[in-house]
Amino acid sequence: MVAKDTQVFISRVVGLPIVDAAGDQVGRVKDVVCHLRADGKAPRVKGLVVELFARARIFVPMVRVHGIAPTHVAILGQVDTRRFKRRETEILIAADLLNRVIGNDRRTRIADISMHQVRNREWELSSAALRSTTRVGRFGLGGRNEARVASWREIPELILRTGRTPAHLIAEFSEMKAADIAQELHDMEPESLAAVVEALDDETLAEALEELPEHEQIELISALDTDRAADVLAEMDPDDAADLIKDLPSDVAEDLLQRMEPEEALDVRRLLMYEEFTAGGMMTPEPVILDTDATVAQALANVRIDSLTPALASMVFVTRPPLETPSGRYIGAVHIQRLLREPPTTLVATLLDEGLEPLPPDAPLALVSRFFATYNLVVAPVVNAEGHLVGAVTVDDVLDHMLPDDWRGDQMDEIDADEFDEVSRG
């Protein structure tokens, strides 16, 4: 597999087979997707366009790419099998750039572009291989090819132009937290908002949507094409998606659920069975769950997953199979601090917090908040009457439900007022 900072030329990746954790081939790489960034930073590689054996093309984010070898690309975890839809601000390296001329220089073409891993499963473009043809003589003689490696900055298409275009805003958003992106969306005029939302990828839009006031969430999701709205809801945390769907007209909500992937819709439907201000209504159905024979090393590997929030990564839960919610019989929970103090071969099931009783799904908010305060927790298990783990409540879920309904809107308006005061004083 490729070591950090090793350059990988994209022409050598295109066409490679994609293999899953079991070593089975699931498709082939067709292209590499990147987006531009502000402040002169190298374009970031978002993921791969993969053609499945059914000829459908899907998107595989780089966080799912475990390694790139000369013979194949290895991926981990489940991938979204929905057909790939290109966003306006995305660049497809093979389709858009390879073998293209550079600007007005008709004799220089882009032979290849390389990328390298800058952090765990984060990739950036690094250089370009250029091929130039010297001027051909009168009778077609004397021309020859010359090759050189140049910085990505010599490719005009990879340089972000100044201005407040959707492309520029998307580039800025790539360096921002979800709450800050939500603030930007909150402050936009309707026309600009529509253009930026159209250009945003589903995952970024979903994360920002979770940080907007409830009425703005409803307005934004209602303005989207129905299929796009279903895709964005599928990228949201199931508990946030369920809260949003509860506020939509019943026919609209059911239509969106029908258009979501069945497994994702099932998670949301399960949450909709519970009252909003209960442990079941606040929980996420995707905590870290381990089998009884799991070791500390396996547990620590699971909590390193990039998509986990710090709260969810602070505790693992041990159950009998199946290991998806609703799980098999709940055994117990282990704090990450305990895992860090034990040898890697120790069985997680021997480290359970014996004093931690799980919450029932119908536990009201008042009881849940006292539970967190009593045990100094940031996440707690939710177990049903049959003894199955059905989810976990995090402290941010509790705070969301304890604060006033429009606390996000109030906070954003306060930020606007503070910025106005600074401008006035300046």
TrEMBL record:
Residues 352-414 form the CBS domain. One of its GO terms (cellular component) is membrane. Keywords: CBS domain. One of its GO terms (molecular function) is magnesium ion transmembrane transporter activity. It comes from the Bacteria. SUPFAM superfamilies: CBS-domain pair (SSF54631), MgtE N-terminal domain-like (SSF158791). This is PRC-barrel domain-containing protein.
